[in-house]
Design a protein that fits this description.
Blueprint (H helix, E strand, L loop, with lengths): L1 H10 L1 H13 L8 H14 L2 E3 L7 E6 L8 E7 L26 H16 L8 E7 L7 H7 L10 E12 L3 E3 L2 E4 L1 E10 L3 E2 L9 H19 L6 E10 L5 E2 L2 E10 L2 H21 L3 E10 L2 E3 L1 H14 L5 E3 L11 H4 L5 E9 L20 H15 L3
Helix pairs in contact: 1-10, 2-4, 3-4, 4-10, 6-7, 8-10
Length: 395
């Protein structure tokens, strides 16, 4: 079976590559993926996959029914479909035709590989039971698309039993599956702070309430939460990324605003962060005679990969590509993935890395204007996803 899947995946390489390059040439930002969604629907329908209505304008869900008698589990495969607001500088013949937009995170590859898996599995329905649910999700880069898809009920009707995904990774050789069990992606939250004081002349600061000085002290003090209030072995990041205030060199402003992000691998720590932050913000604002406004937005939770699901995906990689094509990653990352909205609901879940590095694609990072998904990885992704479904639903 494994050799058959590998052969079929390679036979589809040119077809899937053409799809990937077409998607790359026409990138669309989160929530605007109209053309991409239309392409996905058109291709799925040509395979005989049932398109399920979903109340997300650019989200697509397809169902493929296995014909083999069995337990009838529902296995979901997910790909993100949105691009980034980056000016492409690859110089490729199929480079973005839309200035200031490009696929710089591999979502074009993720989408094409999932279409490839759908096409391959559609020819093998006699060999698996249950239902495969193909989830093509918009707006991953804004960490909002998965939330919308879950709210729209994509994990229900039929109820999903397990969900998996692959994400391209420029730090692994092409085709190698990078695995990690347990928490991998950090939660991703944002915050906004406004410090309100009293404006005045820069020459007479004692006659004003200097909100800029207060805000600067607060930004510094917030770093003590991670360095002094949390255990050093608990991965947590608090970053202030914007700071706005003032209109002239000699005017103390009336208010200053700053914002940032918090990333955690521990859910308890994540839930405690708003209180810890507000205690510092409120105390220091009062000390400077200022008022404050504080808003904390819980965006996406930690992505914790289910060990059994990871093992199944690793087995699928080695069955199709060969021994050594599944390796453990060095450790978790502080980046976030809204796949966590699915894994929070479905315990049997995992999103793993798929290597795309070779001599031509040597560690150009994600979100870089010269990034390009390596098409040589396509047969590996298609075969891993397909073999995973067949192994899981063949009994």
């Amino acid at each position: 079976m494994s050799n058959e899947i590998w052969i079929k995946a390679n036979e589809l390489k040119d077809y899937v590559t053409a799809l990937r390059r077409q998607i790359h040439q026409h990138p669309e930002l989160g929530g605007q993926e109209v053309r991409t969604a239309e392409l996905i629907c058109r291709e799925l329908q040509s395979y005989g996959v049932e398109i399920v209505p979903v109340n997300v304008p650019t989200g697509v869900v397809g169902l493929l029914h296995g014909k083999k008698p069995g337990r009838g589990q529902v296995t979901a495969l997910r790909a993100d479909i949105d691009a980034l607001p980056i000016l492409e500088k690859t110089g490729l013949p199929y480079a973005s035709e839309h200035e200031g937009k490009m696929h710089a995170c591999g979502h074009d590859g993720h989408t094409a590989m999932l279409l490839g898996a759908a096409k391959l599995l559609s020819t093998m329905t006699e060999q698996f039971s249950g239902i495969v649910k193909f989830i093509f999700q918009p707006a991953e880069e804004t960490l909002s698309g998965a939330k919308d898809m879950v709210k729209a009920g994509v994990l229900e009707n039929p109820q999903v039993d397990s969900i998996v995904g692959l994400h391209s990774w420029p730090y692994l050789p092409v085709g190698v599956l990078g695995t990690w069990k347990g928490p991998y992606y950090a939660s991703g939250d944002s915050f906004q702070v406004k410090i309100i004081g009293g404006s005045g002349h820069g020459a007479y600061p004692h006659k004003s309430k200097d909100c800029l000085l207060a805000a600067a002290q607060i930004v510094t003090a917030l770093q003590s939460i991670v360095s002094r209030q949390l255990n050093a072995i608990d991965n947590t990041v608090l970053s202030v990324c914007t700071f706005h205030g003032g209109t002239a060199f000699n005017i103390i402003p009336e208010q200053v605003e700053f914002s940032g992000t918090v990333r955690c691998h521990n859910s308890e720590i994540r839930n405690s962060m708003p209180q810890k932050m507000e205690k510092i913000i409120g105390g220091m604002a009062e000390a400077f005679g200022c008022r404050y406004e504080f808003n904390y937005n819980f965006a996406v939770p930690v992505v914790a990969n289910d060990p059994e699901t990871v093992d199944r995906l690793a087995a699928a990689a080695e069955q199709t590509a060969g021994t050594g094509f599944a390796v453990e990653l060095p450790g978790p990352v502080m980046g976030s993935e809204d796949f966590g909205m699915y894994s929070e609901k479905i315990p049997a879940s995992a999103i793993l890395r798929l290597g795309i590095a070779d001599e031509k694609n040597s560690e150009i990072p994600l979100h870089n204007e010269r990034f390009n998904f390596n098409d040589d990885a396509i047969p590996y992704g298609v075969s891993i996803l397909s073999q995973y479904v067949l192994d899981k639903n063949s009994q």
